[in-house]
C-alpha cells in the first residue's frame, strides 16, 4: 500500500514525470520516419506517385534529432543550482510542463520550416535539461539512505516506460491519424501530469500537510535533519572539480548515454534501413529493449539496497560491480549484435545490452548522493551536462556514417558505442567511490561538530565544578 507513504507517492509521481520526459523526447524518433518516408499518392488525373511530407537528407535528419540536445546541454548545471534555491519539485514540474506545451506546437513548427522546428526542439531541450539535477534535489530531502537506490531506480524506470509506450504508440498514431497526432497526444498527457505533480508533491516532508508524523520523523532522522532546519548551501567547488570520484562518474554517465542516445534516436531508422521493418512494427520492436530495461531497473535498485543492508557489499563495491558489470556486458553484446547483423540475433543482443544498462543506473546514477547529498543536484548537473554531449554528437555522426544506409556503416556505429562503454568501464572501476567525500558539506559539518564537542564538554565540566563549590 505505497499510497499510504508520502515518499512513495513522490516516487510514483516522479516515475510518471520521467515517463513524460522520455515520451516527449523520443516521439520524434518514430514520427520522423513517417514525416520523411515515401508515401503512395493518387493524383486527380488517376496516376500514382510518391511524395514525402519533408524531403530531408539523412544528415539533416541527424541535426533535427540532435537539436533537442543543443538546448538540453545548457541547463543541467543551472537546474542543480536553482533546485537548491527554489525547490526541486517546482523546477522539475515546470521543466516538463513547458516541454509538453511546446510539443503541442511541434506540428505547426515543422510546417513553418525546418529552422522553426529546430528552434522549438532546442527550447524543449532547455526546459527538460533541468529535470535530472532537480530530482536529485528532491531525493536529498525525501529519500532515506537505505532506500536511495530503489527510490531513484524506480523513478528512473519511468524513462524507459515512456520509451516503451511512446515508440509503438507513435507508430500507431502516425499510421492511423497522421504524424501530427503523435505530438498532440503526448503533449496533452504531459500537461495533465504537470497539474497533478504541482498539487501532490511538496518540496520536503516538513511542508507536506498529508504526511504522517511518524514518516516525517523517520525521514528527517535518517537524513540527519531536524524540522524547520534551513541552511544556505555553499558548494565546495574546488573539492568537486578536483575530485577523482566526481570525474569517474562523469565519464561513466557520458559512456552510458552514448550507447543509450545512439539507440534512442537511431534504432527506428536502423530497423527500417538495415532490418527492413515496416513503420508500425519498427515502433514496437524499438520499444522492447526499453521494456526490459524498465523491468530490470526495479530489480537492480532493490538488489543494490539489499546487498548494502545485508552487509554483503559496501556502497563503493555496489556502485563498482553493478556499473562496470553492466558496461562489460553491453560492450560484448553490442559487438556481437553488430557482427551478426541478422534481425533475430541482432535485436536480441541489442535488447540484452540495453536491458543490462539498468544495473549501471544503480551505479553512476545514484552515486552523486553518496558523495555529497546536499550537493547532489549540482553534481548531477555537472555529469548530465557532459552526458548530454552524446545526444548532440551521436545522431550527427551516425547520420554521416550511414549516408548510404549499408550494413557495414551500421556496424561501425555499434562498434563505436561498444568501445565507449569499455572506456567508461575501466575509468569508473578505478575512480569510483561510494563514500561521503572529505570536501562535502556534510563532512565539513561533522568536523565542525567534532571541534565544538570538546569545548562543550569542557564548559559542562566547569559548570559542574562551580555548582559543587557553591554547594560546599
Detailed description of the structure:
The chain is mainly α and 472 residues long. It has 2 domains: 1-224, Growth Hormone, Chain: A; 236-439, Up-down Bundle (Growth Hormone, Chain: A). Helices cover 78% and strands 2% of the residues. The protein is built from 19 helices and 2 strands. The protein has helices at residues 6-36, 58-72, 76-86, 88-104, 106-112, 114-128, 131-142, 148-177, 180-200, 213-222, 237-241, 244-273, 279-309, 315-340, 343-361, 364-371, 376-401, 407-431, 441-471; strands at residues 39-42, 48-51. A hairpin with a 5-residue loop joins strand 1 and strand 2. Keywords: Cell membrane, Cytoplasmic vesicle, Glycoprotein, Lysosome, Membrane, Symport, Synapse, Transmembrane, Transmembrane helix, Transport. Residues 9-436 form the Major facilitator superfamily (MFS) profile domain. One of its GO terms (biological process) is carboxylic acid transport. It is found in: Basolateral cell membrane; Cytoplasmic vesicle, Secretory vesicle membrane; Cytoplasmic vesicle, Secretory vesicle, Synaptic vesicle membrane; Lysosome membrane.
In short:
It is found in: Basolateral cell membrane; Cytoplasmic vesicle, Secretory vesicle membrane; Cytoplasmic vesicle, Secretory vesicle, Synaptic vesicle membrane; Lysosome membrane. The chain has 472 residues and is mainly α.
CA-to-CA gap between the ends?
A: 63 Å
CATH fold descriptor of the largest domain: Growth Hormone, Chain: A
SS-based structural class? mainly alpha
**Number of distinct beta strands:** 2
Radius of gyration, CA atoms, in whole angstroms? 25 Å
Helix content: over 70%
Query: What string gives the helices and strands in order?
Result: HEEHHHHHHHHHHHHHHHHHH
**Tally of helical runs:** 19
Which segments are poorly predicted (pLDDT under 50) over 5 or more consecutive residues? none
The overall average pLDDT, rounded, is 87
Function: Receptor for CM101, a polysaccharide produced by group B Streptococcus with antipathoangiogenic properties.
Pfam family, one: MFS_1
Membrane topology: Multi-pass membrane protein
Protein name: Sialin
Amino acid at each position: 500500500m505505497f499510497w499510504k507513504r508520502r515518499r512513495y507517492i513522490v516516487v510514483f509521481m516522479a516515475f510518471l514525470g520521467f515517463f513524460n520526459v522520455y515520451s516527449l523526447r523520443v516521439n520524434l524518433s518514430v514520427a520522423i520516419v513517417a514525416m520523411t518516408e515515401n508515401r503512395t499518392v493518387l493524383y486527380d488525373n488517376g496516376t500514382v506517385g510518391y511524395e514525402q511530407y519533408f524531403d530531408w537528407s539523412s544528415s539533416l535528419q541527424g541535426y533535427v534529432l540532435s537539436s533537442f540536445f543543443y538546448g538540453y546541454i545548457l541547463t543541467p548545471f543551472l537546474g542543480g543550482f536553482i533546485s537548491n534555491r527554489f525547490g526541486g519539485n517546482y523546477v522539475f514540474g515546470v521543466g516538463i510542463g513547458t516541454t509538453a506545451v511546446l510539443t503541442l506546437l511541434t506540428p505547426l513548427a515543422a510546417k513553418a520550416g525546418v529552422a522553426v522546428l529546430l528552434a522549438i526542439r532546442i527550447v524543449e531541450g532547455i526546459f527538460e535539461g533541468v529535470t535530472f539535477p532537480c530530482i536529485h534535489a528532491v531525493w536529498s530531502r525525501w529519500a532515506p539512505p537505505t532506500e536511495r537506490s530503489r527510490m531513484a531506480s524506480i523513478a528512473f524506470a519511468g524513462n524507459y516506460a515512456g520509451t516503451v509506450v511512446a515508440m509503438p504508440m507513435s507508430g500507431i498514431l502516425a499510421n492511423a491519424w497522421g504524424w501530427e497526432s503523435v505530438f498532440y497526444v503526448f503533449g496533452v498527457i504531459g500537461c495533465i501530469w504537470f497539474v497533478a505533480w504541482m498539487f501532490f508533491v511538496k518540496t520536503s516532508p516538513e511542508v507536506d500537510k498529508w504526511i504522517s508524523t511518524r514518516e516525517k520523523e523517520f525521514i528527517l532522522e535518517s537524513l540527519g535533519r531536524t524540522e524547520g532546519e534551513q541552511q544556505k548551501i555553499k558548494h565546495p567547488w574546488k573539492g568537486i572539480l578536483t575530485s577523482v570520484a566526481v570525474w569517474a562518474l562523469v565519464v561513466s554517465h557520458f559512456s552510458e548515454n552514448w550507447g543509450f542516445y545512439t539507440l534512442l534516436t537511431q534504432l527506428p531508422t536502423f530497423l527500417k534501413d538495415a532490418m527492413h521493418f515496416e513503420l508500425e512494427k519498427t515502433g514496437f520492436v524499438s520499444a522492447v529493449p526499453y521494456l526490459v530495461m524498465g523491468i530490470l531497473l526495479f530489480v537492480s535498485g532493490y538488489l543494490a539496497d539489499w546487498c548494502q543492508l545485508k552487509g554483503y557489499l559496501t556502497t563503493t563495491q555496489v556502485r563498482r560491480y553493478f556499473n562496470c558489470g553492466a558496461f562489460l556486458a553491453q560492450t560484448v553484446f553490442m559487438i556481437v549484435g553488430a557482427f551478426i547483423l541478422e534481425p533475430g540475433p541482432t535485436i536480441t543482443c541489442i535488447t540484452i545490452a540495453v536491458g543490462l544498462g539498468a544495473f549501471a543506473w544503480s551505479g553512476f546514477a545514484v552515486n552523486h548522493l553518496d558523495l555529497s547529498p546536499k550537493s547532489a543536484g549540482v553534481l548531477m548537473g555537472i555529469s548530465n551536462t557532459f552526458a548530454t554531449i552524446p545526444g548532440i554528437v551521436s545522431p550527427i555522426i551516425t547520420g554521416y556514417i550511414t549516408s548510404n544506409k549499408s550494413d557495414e556503416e551500421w556496424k561501425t556505429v555499434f562498434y563505436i558505442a561498444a568501445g565507449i562503454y569499455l572506456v567508461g568501464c575501466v575509468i569508473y572501476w578505478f575512480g569510483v567511490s561510494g563514500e561521503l567525500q572529505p570536501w562535502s558539506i556534510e563532512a565539513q559539518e561533522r568536523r565542525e561538530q567534532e571541534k565544538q564537542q570538546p569545548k562543550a564538554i569542557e564548559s559542562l565540566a566547569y559548570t559542574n565544578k562551580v555548582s559543587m563549590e557553591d554547594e560546599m
